[in-house]
Amino acid sequence: MSKTPSDQELLYQVKTAADPEAYAALYDKYIQQIYRFVFFKVSSREEAEDIASEVFLKAWQYFQEGKAIKSFSGLLYRIARNSIIDWYRKRAGSQKIEALAARREAIEPGDGGRWYAELHTSLDAGVIVNALKQLKQEYQEVITLRYIDELSIEEIAEITGKRGLTVRVMIHRALKRLRQKLG
Amino acid sequence: MREIVEQLKRLRQGEASPRAEWVQQNRALLLSQIKNTLPARPRERVNVLENLWSRLSHYLPESLVYQVLRPALVLLVVVAVLASGAGAVDAAYETLPGDALYPVKRAAEKTQVAVATIIGKKDAATRLHMEFAKRRAVETKKLVRSETAPAKTDKVRVAMADLTSEITTVENKLEAVKQRPVNGLPAQAVKDVKQNTEEIRAVLQEVKENLLISRDTADQALSQEVNTTKNLVKDVAVKAAEAMVAKHLGGDRSVSKEEVKQELTATLRTVAQDAAATQQSVDGAKTMVQTAQSEAKELVSSTKTAGGDTTKSTELKDKITDVANQTIKAVLQNEVATAEVTKQVTEASSWLKQDDLAQAVDKLKQASDAGTQAERISDAAVSKIQEVLPAVAVVKEAISASTTLPLPVAPVTTMSSTLPTTTLPVGGGAGAAINRHPVSR
Fold first, then answer.
1. pLDDT tens digits, residue range A101-120?
2. Above 60 in pLDDT, residue A20?
């Protein structure tokens, strides 16, 4: 058994004592995952950083309002997903690229960003990211969560709000689709 | 396929991860942001058991914790308490609302009611409800004496809620008697209910008055809550009187007509006394505020004579004048309400003389309602002067410090800071008569 306090214990501290240190421990645990989740969907590192930072602040406000929370990671991913949608809306408004936002089939991850350019220095990474970004958003998400963040099926089910079996099927189909894209 | 998965896993490294430097900076920023959202509040003392339930409900479904685990544990403790002998029973018996073992006491009481309902006499459960309501009233009195805010407010609220629950159960039974006098509680039990509710009312009246004259605003607010429960109890007492009459007229002669008349006379006397007491209170309030008013006027003129700044003293004088006017208005309103009480009581007595119980009890009800109205007016007036009297001392001190005038400080200080709280005029019931003001009766 690990000596680090569980999510539940930390959540309890945050909920009952509004303990910032307990919240910081939750931040340490999830910041990498949330950052990556966001990063694959936005165009630059700076934007990913802004959104990831916003996610944790919003989650804290959620606690402050005394709302019930079943799973902290579930809450973070839900906030992250909404923040990304907001980000797309803003971008669509300012850059007049509504077509991109409307095309749910493939919201491009990291296009035009430094990360994408540098990844192309590695042929393998470039090819796979290119294929990944052509997948529809829910396929991108399950692949990111399953293979990059290495979450369990149950965790993904909780985050995406789908049943475990559906998640398995989606991962299977997403991988199949990815393989087709890789040709 | 495996190769694709391996490639995906490799994406985790490098650029797909956040910069360590940013992670740290953002952490510090987040901490400072969230600390700013926290109100500066003292840590509340949390009841150990409540803490346990709250902690458990965080991990387990709330319904399981509060509807299954907690009752199960309480039952276990009840069994343990019962099994472990008289000492442990006493331990729970002595607890007050809000204490850790108080739920055990309540559970034991509820068990007693359940057993009495099944195997006891028709009125056994009602007797128990009255007994427990009395306990809650006495406990409230103890709590008000021994506890301090904010725990006091919470605990008194628990006691008031439990008392209300007991009284409401009894009230429903009285209602049933009124509807169908031949059924339900026997006349003797109804008489007992009436006497007990009047006792409870007297205790709550005393508690309310002690809270009302407190300097603490939380206490004053709490006095209103106690007053609400007290008024409920008072209404139930009147309802019991009505039920007694209904029983008698319905043919239950186990309580004689003379006894019914005695009971009604006693209640009428209490209603009349209470109304007179509210009048004395509001008159006392008027006297006090008028004294303060003339002192404030004196203060303004002495400050002016000494060439000092009269702004503060004038402000005070105006405020007191305002309160004085309101108090005079309250006196008049109270006189009207009290006159109504007297009128109804007189009529009721006259009906009693003619042996018309139904008319008499009807008048008693109207007298009681008018009495509640008189008390409300008097309480509002007392509460109002409580707001202004401490200001007299404060402003006076400030002015004397700044002008170093040889001011006639004595009367004002007497009014506001050295005034024993028990001499403040408060209207109300016979139960509080001992503590009441020296205004002549």
1. 444 334 444 444 444 444 44
2. yes
Q: Cα torsion at B36, B42, B47, B48 (round to 10°)?
A: 70
Number of Cβ atoms within 10 Å of the Cβ of A67: 10
Whether residues B127 and B229 fall in one domain: yes
- Based on the fold, state whether residues A91 and A127 are members of the same structural domain: no
Cβ A182 vs Cβ A128: under 8 Å: yes
Reference A43, options A88, A104, A81, A86; nearest CA is A88
Query: A123 and A52, same structural domain?
Result: no
A70/A126 same-domain check: no
How many helices (H) does chain A have, and how many strands (E)? 10, 0
Q: Are B55 and A52 within 8 A, CB to CB?
A: no
Residue B402: per-residue pLDDT: 56
Q: What is the ipTM of this complex?
A: 0.75
Q: Domain containing B206: what range? A: 95-255
Q: Which two tokens stand for residue B361?
A: 């009890």
Confidence of residue A9 (pLDDT cuts 50, 70, 90): confident
| DSSP per-residue string spanning B136-190 | HHHHHHHHHHH--TTHHHHHHHHHHHHHHHHHHHHHHHHHHHHH-TTSSS-HHHH
SS3 B93: helix
The C-alpha R_g of chain A, in whole angstroms, comes to 17
Of A57, A72, A102, at which residue does a domain stop? Answer: A102
Distance CA B182, CA B176 (A): 10
Indicate whether B286 and B248 sit together in one domain.
no
Q: Which stretches within A103-163 are classed as H helix? A: 114-119, 123-133, 137-143, 153-160
Interface of A with B (CB under 8 A): 8, 11-12, 15-16, 18, 20, 23-24, 27-28, 31-32, 35-36, 39-40, 45, 48-49, 52-53, 56-57, 60-61, 64, 114-115, 118-119, 124-125, 128-129, 132, 143, 147-150, 175, 178-179, 182
In a domain, B29, yes or no: yes
Q: Is B290 exposed, middle or buried (0-12, 13-18, 19+ CB in 10 A)?
A: middle
CA distances, B153 to each of B94, B216, B225, B277 (Å): 20, 12, 10, 27
Cβ-Cβ contacts under 8 Å, B37 against chain A = 60-61, 64
B129-169 pLDDT, tens digit per residue, is 999 999 999 999 999 888 877 888 889 999 999 999 999 99
Phi, psi of B244 (to 5 degrees): -60, -45
Q: Indicate if A83 and A11 belong to the same structural domain.
A: yes
Arithmetic mean of pLDDT, B202-226: 86
B387, part of any domain? yes
Residues B332-366, buried b or exposed e (16+ Cβ, 10 A)? ebbeebbebbbebbebbbebbeeeebebbbbbbbb
Residue B313 corresponds to which tokens in the numbers above? 């003293």
Whether B299 contacts B396, CB under 8 Å: yes
Element (H, E) at B299: helix B257-305
